[in-house]
């Protein structure tokens, strides 16, 4: 059974490092070390910055792959038309169990991400920068980086910068969810699709992209488009960050130039020589069968051409000894549990698809297969966010990639192979890193975890009391009677389940650090450079 990935797994690089430069020297590049490794960065005008992004064909690295230069121009035009300053948002909400590339960058190279974000803010005249995260480790690292640069959220600052932390849920990583939470609402999609470029944070045009995208922009701004294009493919230059897990000897995050054969990446991580299949792009991605894996190379267009997806950069092989449909069922059930519960395609459709896939495995026959296909088709392009679309794509890809196993289950008595659980998930009892108890604590007694109720989000559904009666009970008004409470070790798994299934995302778990020394380093308060000069030297 694969365990949940740590926040910062092993990091490797193929060829010369760009984003991971300096990782061989220190665990985290603070501002002085960052400047020693990468050097200072001069501001660029808006047109120059957009042209740079277009010259290197920079696309968003969060999954959608939208052209960054086009997004930058759209935000600038909208801001000029409305006569208001835009907002810059870094999306570091990496909540998929199989993805860690952005988390690694935020933990180890936060200033490279800030370089890109500050370039954009300077070019467009933005006065607000928000970095969205969901993990304790990423929150601490990015808050430390802002402090090292002398950036804050104080009124009167030329650029107000802050970190927005949301719950670890698949839907909180959606752009609309992050924007809604920044505005003070719940970290769930608003139910209507509005372009952030037109109306994002506070109704202002908002440039939102993921952490790796801003880091790539910072690299290109330093070395120039010609040197940047010397690495990787002609039409997709540069490097990409991948998270490789699943049936591998060494789960890792790896920086590779585009054009590297996928099989080479798998070999580095110790994957089977002949995997039964490889899931590309993460749990909103697509499977490649064994025959196609050897043809695939690492790039967005090349993977799409052979039926795969780069997506969020997660690569997950499985062995010949496991049931691929059973492995996919675990993921489908998790995706269904991650629903925000706001729209029928997500709240009803995804659980129905997971039940249908389970029916296939249990000998439901052709009728079960047709039912799954129909449900997957019906949920697409009808949800409040992209979660139903991505989940349906994953299920359809599963049915397409493993036809022999599908036939064995639909027409016979199954494939005869066990489900090994090689695809990492946040399951009951598997607490995401950052809220784990200390290694010396016993399995019984009190833990160092506390569960909190966010009253601004709680809607009185009462599900917390049903799932965690040891901690919560409802008052006469139907709301929990406590705002925070310690979590006994014996019910940690149930507490995690309550957090993840709260329809309003009103619960969170944090480590109770009272009595423990803080792991956050004492940072010097910068006496100068409280404004835009943080872009260059931090002084």
How would you describe the overall organization of this protein?
This protein is 37% helix and 13% strand. It is α/β, with parallel strands linked by helices. The strands form three sheets. A six-stranded mixed β-sheet has the order 1-7-6-10-8-9. It is globular. The N and C termini lie far apart (49 Å). The model is unreliable at 428-446 and 514-539 (pLDDT under 50). Belongs to the complex I 51 kDa subunit family. Pfam families: Complex1_51K, Fer4_15, NADH_4Fe-4S, SLBB. GO terms for molecular function: 4 iron, 4 sulfur cluster binding; metal ion binding; NADH dehydrogenase activity. Keywords: 4Fe-4S, Flavoprotein, FMN, Iron, Iron-sulfur, Metal-binding.
Question: Could you name the key traits of this structure?
Answer:
metal ion binding, disordered C terminus, 539 residues, Ubiquitin-like (UB roll), Nuop51_4Fe4S-bd_sf, flavoprotein, metal-binding, Rossmann fold, 4 domains, alpha/beta, Oxidoreductase
Tally of individual helices? 18
- Going by CATH, the homologous superfamily of the largest domain would be NADH-ubiquinone oxidoreductase 51kDa subunit
Strand content: 5-15%
CA(first)-CA(last) distance: 49 Å
Task: Identify the CATH class of the largest domain.
Answer: Alpha Beta
User: Roughly how much helix do the residues carry, as a percent range?
Assistant: 25-40%
């Amino acid at each position: 059974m694969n365990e949940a990935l740590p926040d910062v797994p092993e990091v490797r690089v193929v060829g010369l490092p760009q984003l991971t430069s300096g990782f061989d020297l220190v665990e985290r590049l603070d501002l002085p070390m960052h400047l020693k490794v990468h050097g200072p960065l001069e501001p660029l005008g808006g047109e120059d910055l957009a042209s740079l992004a277009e010259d290197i064909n920079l696309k968003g690295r969060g999954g959608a792959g939208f052209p960054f230069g086009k997004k930058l121009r759209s935000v600038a035009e909208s801001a000029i038309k409305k006569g208001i300053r835009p907002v810059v948002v870094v999306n570091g909400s990496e909540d998929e169990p199989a993805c860690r590339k952005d988390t690694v960058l935020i933990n180890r190279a936060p200033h490279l991400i800030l370089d890109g974000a500050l370039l954009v803010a300077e070019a467009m005249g933005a006065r607000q920068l928000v970095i969205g995260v969901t993990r304790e480790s990423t929150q601490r690292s990015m808050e430390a980086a802002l402090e090292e640069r002398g950036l804050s959220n104080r009124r009167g600052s030329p650029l107000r910068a802050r970190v927005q932390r949301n719950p670890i849920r698949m839907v909180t990583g959606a752009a609309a969810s992050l924007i809604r939470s920044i505005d003070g609402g719940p970290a769930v999609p608003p139910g209507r699709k509005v372009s952030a470029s037109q109306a994002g944070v506070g109704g202002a045009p908002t440039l939102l992209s993921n952490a790796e995208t801003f880091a790539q922009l910072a690299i290109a701004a330093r070395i120039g488009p010609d040197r940047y294009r010397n690495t990787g493919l002609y039409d997709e230059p540069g490097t990409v960050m991948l998270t490789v897990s699943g049936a591998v000897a060494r789960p890792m995050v790896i920086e590779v130039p585009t054009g590297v054969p996928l099989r080479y990446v798998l070999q580095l991580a110790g994957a089977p020589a002949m995997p039964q299949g490889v899931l590309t792009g993460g749990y909103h991605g697509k499977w490649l069968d064994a025959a196609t894996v050897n043809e695939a190379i690492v790039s967005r267009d090349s993977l799409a051409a052979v039926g795969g997806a780069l997506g969020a950069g997660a690569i997950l092989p499985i062995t010949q000894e496991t049931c691929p449909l059973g492995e996919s069922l675990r993921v489908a059930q998790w995706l269904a549990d991650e629903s925000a519960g706001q729209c029928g395609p997500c709240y009803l459709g995804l659980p129905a698809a997971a039940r249908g896939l389970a029916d296939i495995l249990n000998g439901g026959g052709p009728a079960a297969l047709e039912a799954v296909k129909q449900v997957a088709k019906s949920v697409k392009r009808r949800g409040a966010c992209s979660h139903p679309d991505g989940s349906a794509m994953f299920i359809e890809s599963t049915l397409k990639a493993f036809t022999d196993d599908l036939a064995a289950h639909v027409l016979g008595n199954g494939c005869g192979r066990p489900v090994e659980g090689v695809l990492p998930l946040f399951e009951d009892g598997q607490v995401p890193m950052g809220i784990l108890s200390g290694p010396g604590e016993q399995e019984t007694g009190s833990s160092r975890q506390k569960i909190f109720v966010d009253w601004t989000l709680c809607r009185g559904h009462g599900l917390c009391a049903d799932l965690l009666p040891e901690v919560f009970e409802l008052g006469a008004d139907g709301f929990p009677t406590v705002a925070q409470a310690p979590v006994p070790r014996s019910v940690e798994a149930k507490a995690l389940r309550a957090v993840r299934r709260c329809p309003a995302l009103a619960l969170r778990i944090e480590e109770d650090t009272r009595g423990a020394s803080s792991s956050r380093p004492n940072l010097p308060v910068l006496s100068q450079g409280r404004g835009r000069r943080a872009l260059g030297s931090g002084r």
